[in-house]
Specification:
about 325 residues, alpha+beta, Immunoglobulin-like, 5-stranded antiparallel beta sheet, 6 helices, globular
């Protein structure tokens, strides 16, 4: 006869097998044709896209490149200042050990950046559109470094964007963590030191920990700074995960709960702890009536704390709503 303890052990083993495949989600993906993937070089912005024409034709990518081959990097300027600036573009192997979380400080800490550089385009003024051609022969982690030097002031603005060529995966650590959690929960059950309710909560914790990239919102309704408006949102992607283009429906009401129609709405935001903005340019594409507005081009490209600033102008009133999300 199989004991209850053994049954519980196999139950948790089965649950872990159901959860673990969620680790294999890749970073990056194809950008929706209606979306704008934006790179922020200081206060200067450009639409950024990558093509691998010989392998994937007209498919457009925002950050990661799914296949090796000759890749075309394109920046379409969204700010006139870039047309007058000297642009230099460097691609290096990502030796920071920070993977997709590498930042400018990590790049500056590299002792010999030339030794890990695979392509460098020196500073030059390129009106309207900047293009760069690079052939990748190896899958791996890389970092793009873009600098813009204003010719009138000499001010230099620099940004970095880690990306992958091919899919590398998350390594062995998620599996080791998952194995540890499964063994720990099994111990709790076999030792009878946890109640049934606590065990269920533990399973939920495992799922939440391993299915990375799910959004947890602290609130369901947000009031504007001056109190003129209140906003709710609903996503067509549930749950919200990183690196997936999706849309939102914003419900905008006045302070007394009346629907706000005919409003002008703009969306901005980013990760203040990482000092970068949104990777896309979300925008209202349709007013649905009764205070509802459809926003296209939503995308979060990494886990962490995000802030979205919803600017609303309706009649004589203008106000901002700050929505906070934890990925």
């Amino acid at each position: 006869m199989v004991s209850n303890a053994v049954r519980r052990y196999f139950l948790f083993a089965a649950l872990s097998l159901l959860v673990l495949p969620g680790i294999a989600h890749a970073h990056g993906g194809v950008v929706d044709e209606n979306d704008l993937c934006i790179i922020n070089i200081g206060y200067l912005k450009a639409r950024f896209k990558i093509y691998v024409p010989q392998q994937t034709g007209h498919d457009e990518y925002c950050e990661d490149i799914p296949v090796r081959g000759e890749s075309v990097f394109i920046m379409e300027y969204q700010h006139d200042g870039l047309s007058e600036a000297e642009i230099d573009f460097r691609i290096i192997k990502n030796v920071t050990g920070k993977s997709t979380f590498a930042q400018l400080d990590d790049v500056l800490a590299i002792d010999d950046i030339d030794a890990v550089t695979i392509h460098y385009a020196p500073p030059r003024v390129v009106p309207d559109v900047f293009t760069l051609l690079q052939s990748f022969d190896e899958d791996g982690e890389y970092i793009g470094i873009v600098s813009a030097t204003r010719t009138d002031t000499g001010k230099v603005y620099t940004t970095v964007f880690p990306f992958e060529v091919g899919y590398i995966g998350a390594g062995v650590w998620p599996w080791l963590i998952a194995g540890f959690l499964v063994l720990q929960f099994n111990y709790w059950f076999m030792s009878r030191r946890r109640t049934k309710a606590a065990a269920i909560a533990a399973v939920i914790l495992v799922v939440s920990a391993l299915q990375t990239g799910r959004v947890v919102a602290d609130e369901t309704s947000w009031a504007s700074k001056a109190g003129y408006f209140q906003v709710q949102y609903a996503s067509n992607l549930e749950p919200i995960v990183i690196n997936k283009i999706h849309s939102w429906i914003l419900q905008v009401e006045s302070a007394d709960g009346k629907a706000v129609t005919g409003a002008e709405i703009t969306i901005d935001g980013g990760m203040p702890e990482h000092n970068h903005g949104l990777p896309t340019l979300p925008r209202v594409v349709e007013e649905l009536g009764e205070g509802r507005y459809r926003v296209a081009g939503m995308r979060f490209h990494m886990g962490g704390y995000w802030e979205l600033r919803i600017s609303i102008a309706a009649g004589s009133r203008r106000d901002d709503v700050l929505i906070t999300l934890n990925l």
